[in-house]
Amino acid sequence: MTRKTIAFFPEASFGAALNCVGIAQALRERGHEAVFLCDPGFAGVFENYGFAEHPVPMAPDMSDEELEKFWSGFITRHLPHFRLSPEDQLPTYVRDCWEAIVDSAEIAEAPLQAAIGRIDPDAIVVDNVIGFPALMQAGVPWVRMVSCAETEIPDAQVPPVMSGLGAEDVASFPAFRARYEEALGPVHARYNSFRDSRGLPALPPGEFMESSPDLNLLLYAAPLRFDRAEHLSPPRFHYLEGCVREEDPFEMPDIPAATNTPVVYVSFGSLGAADVALFERMIRLFADLPYRFLINVGGYKDSFRDVPDNVHLDYWYPQPSVIEKTDLVIHHGGNNSVHEALYFGKPSIVMPYCWDGHDNARRLHDTGLGVHLDRYAWRDQEMMDALAGLTSDKGMKTRLGDISADMIAADGRRQAAELILNVAR
Amino acid sequence: MERRRKSHTELARRIVELLRVEGAEPGTKVAEQRLADSFGVSRTPIRAALRLLTETGILSYAPRQGYSLARPLDTASADAPGLPASEEDQLFQAILRDRFANRLGDTLSVNDLMQRYGTARTTVMHVVARMSEDGLLERGHGQHWRFGPAPDSLSAMEESARFRELIEPAALREPGFVPDAALFSDIRRRHQALLTDDILQTEMRAWIDAGADFHDALAACCANRFLARAIRQQTRLRRLSTYHIGANRRRMRDAFHEHLAILDAVEAGDGERAADLMLVHVRAAQNQRPRVSNRGVPPIARPIRR
Fold this sequence. Notes:
The complex is a heterodimer of chains A (about 425) and B (about 300).
Chain A: E1 5-10, H1 14-29, E2 33-38, E3 52-55, H2 64-78, H3 86-119, E4 123-127, H4 133-136, E5 142-146, H5 173-197, E6 215-219, E7 237-240, E8 263-267, H6 269-272, H7 276-286, E9 292-296, E10 311-314, H8 319-324, E11 328-331, H9 335-343, E12 348-350, H10 356-366, E13 370-372, H11 380-392, H12 394-410, H13 412-423
Parallel strand pairs in A: 1-2, 1-4, 2-3, 4-5, 5-6, 6-7, 8-9, 8-11, 9-10, 11-12, 12-13
Helix pairs in contact in A: 1-13, 3-5
Chain B: H1 6-21, E1 29-30, H2 32-39, H3 43-55, E2 59-62, E3 66-69, H4 87-100, E4 107-109, H5 110-117, H6 121-133, E5 137-139, E6 144-147, H7 154-173, H8 181-195, H9 204-221, H10 225-245, H11 249-267, H12 271-284, E7 292-294, E8 297-300
Helix pairs in contact in B: 1-3, 2-3, 4-6, 5-6, 7-10, 7-12, 8-9, 8-11, 9-10, 9-11, 11-12
């Protein structure tokens, strides 16, 4: 096969970015070129894994001071919203995010066209939640990565996206959908208007991205999948059993106070790390428990003092390499965390606070692969029971071991790379 | 903790370092008197250090023939593998580990340390004195000691980098900068040896040491004693914090190539170019990962290392 150039365009969040890195690594191993179109704020992330980057602004240009102020305001405004139910987050957090996402599609349009013109890729892989006209009209095959949750592609038997509902809650689907469409009506109309200006047809209420006519890859492992009314079938649709990237090896920090105790890795993503009060509460409890805790506190490490001897905090962990060495993962239901835990056969405690986290937490709980704890209403005893139960449940360990073996054998990165190459021009 | 006098262990490390820099091969004789002269100490501590190196298999001893090097020394690492850490070394590292993990507050007393680590007062006092010499601890009120500034937080790392942007290129531009061919050759050999390895699979300690030794080597060639001292202190603090906080391996590999390019420029007598490359090198180390991101909104591009 001739050498192909595949352009990846992940949204400016770590989940999508690092998921694409996994597939790009598999393409490179096969002798093809993977390049990244990314927001300047993510510059260096892909280069760190050895990939070329092409900057595509996806947000208004801001100075460092403006950016600090923006984030400070964003976190102050939205931290209280993370305590709300999925339904009550719609008119608060979710609508605000969609406004910004539609902005990003509009801002990115011209620079995206220019970058694609320069790169001249053989296929474009977009890992985002919104359609970008410049990609769909580039004249080359495009691939949609569905990497938040399976609920992103609607179906009569699948709970509405971001609802946190289970498959058996089918009677509640219509009310949530109605609330979703009501809350997002104006921003959806704005997006459709933008599409119209670019010669693209309007999308149905509540939808911001169509499936690709070429290839759609759903990052959702077999044990989690829903029984759909309308099956998503090849060749256009393929499910992947995870796309776990190769990361730096992880050297377990020296924690002499709790040698040989089970290791628990905690990460709520870079935004979730802003909830310092939640981590402080967890750390107070963890101090007296017989485990070693590795906690990803993002940019907030300096906020913590008197850290207990069995707790290790860091700004950043090479997550897949860490999870491989742990006994249990506590996370926010981000799809990468969900799948990295399954890939290495580790049980999860999921404490979601927004977006796809609600859906993934519910699905892990419903399929018996983890425990869903309310992020704020949890009681100490519940946490202790979940930790003790999940680290000693031999039946679950066996089941997770089988799932891990299947996922490793399926090699989602390789599968994704081959499918992308098949549709590339 | 196994009790060993710090001086013997330290001396043993220095002997290994000397042999390595000299390119000693297995079988090379190691004379007590020459070492005593080199380090300005009597033969008694040298003998104790040589015995320690024999116990760890680095040297061998034969009656009437004396000591000789028993095995090849790692060209990449300045460390002496297998050499046991002294009780003081262990305490020194334990304090740093806990400080960098935010387990120790800003101030502490000798009694606090004795209680926390179950260590004798004398040992704690020696370690406190050593940390004070290194600038890690400063005397506070009464019996208390205060941790000095170290690159142990995001803001402190940024400040350290900005300070280095000022001093490290300046050292290369300073009149009287004289390259030390032997030292540079050693640094270059260690860098090249490490670069032939897969950095994702090797121990980080050798990389951290070789990288820090590069910056120390340039400081040693700088005629301005104040600049040299400031660089050495920054390097020392960064070396110690990186042992505990860790480093981005891929970035480390790139940094080694940058080090070699700087050495090339220095050895070609192009101080200006070397200084420019140094500035780029120090800045590049700061750009790592966005601190926070979310859908649709601009990520904060300020760095998170690793």
